[in-house]
């Protein structure tokens, strides 16, 4: 049995702490070797009780810590480019949370840096590709049983947005999941995006455009509509219905316990992604650890991260005017063919 993969986790906030717990207690073949977060208290709290872990307030010190052989980036999106480039400079394999880099130019610099290395090192945290329902939908579409896809109708609702969440982030952070899922399910790149702004919910913080309605058109003419509402107040709901020439398929119906009493039935609704996608995160990190130990990258990569960011950036431009905006992708380097 070879050594467990020593992972440095950058960012020990909500996602980082959950990934640290997962690496420490859920997945096999890995251990948390270092935690890096400018907030030392947070890093220490997340690392508490883990044998052999070191805690750092500088990301680069965490990457250079003893026993580190791979990196999991869970810092805020704007910090990802620097962390990815630092990992590449050290030849360290990476699992980087979405959005890979929120702006398209920065995302492309990451793609180009990896292309210059001549080998893939990074996986991006589009965990829906590891969700059992999404995987069943993908397998069904790939089987051809439903015929050619015509439309995807998607719903993405959060209970509330975290502090500092901006109108752009509804598209480049939240809807980045639907952009990636649509590209993956359909095997097509987006060609244009239109973002409409209905009136905002009174639950949204002052000035936040919430909800928004995002319409993607793919290069082969499939329409993907996404309702994004990050201050629903009532639940975490992620749904997707594929409408095809010979049938339709829907995933994401809330499937928790149904309670019937006094002549009415009620159903539990998950309150956040850590519950709804718990199994997907576990599979994502386990498959990343396994592939990394084999010296491979098997999940979504930097090209997928770039395509999502470029599409989202066009969406944020459209958000200002409501105008249909074309998505211009750079040529795809052969490494990502
Ligand atoms: N895949 C998914 O479903 C989800 C992904 N995310 C993504 O995970 C990432 C982190 O999000 P949250 O945990 O919600 O944020 P958070 O705000 O809870 O935590 C971020 C942490 O990163 C630290 N940090 C700031 N700058 C840093 C740097 N340069 N290096 C290292 N650490 C730094 C902060 O001190 C904080 O502790 C984001 O990219 C976000 O989009 C978040 C929620 C769900
Ligand atoms: O990635 C995520 C968050 O960053 C984002 O803010 C939420 O809207 C998503 O539901 C969640 O999966």
TrEMBL record:
Family matches, as InterPro entries: Gfo-Idh-MocA_inositol_DH (IPR050424), Gfo/Idh/MocA-like_OxRdtase_C (IPR004104), Gfo/Idh/MocA-like_OxRdtase_N (IPR000683), MI/DCI_dehydrogenase (IPR023794), NAD(P)-bd_dom_sf (IPR036291)
Reaction equations catalysed: myo-inositol + NAD(+) = scyllo-inosose + NADH + H(+)
Highest taxon above the source species: Bacteria
GO biological process, one term: inositol catabolic process
Domain Gfo/Idh/MocA-like oxidoreductase C-terminal residue range list: 138-327
Family to which this protein belongs: Belongs to the Gfo/Idh/MocA family.
Name of the protein: Inositol 2-dehydrogenase
Provenance organism: Streptomyces minutiscleroticus
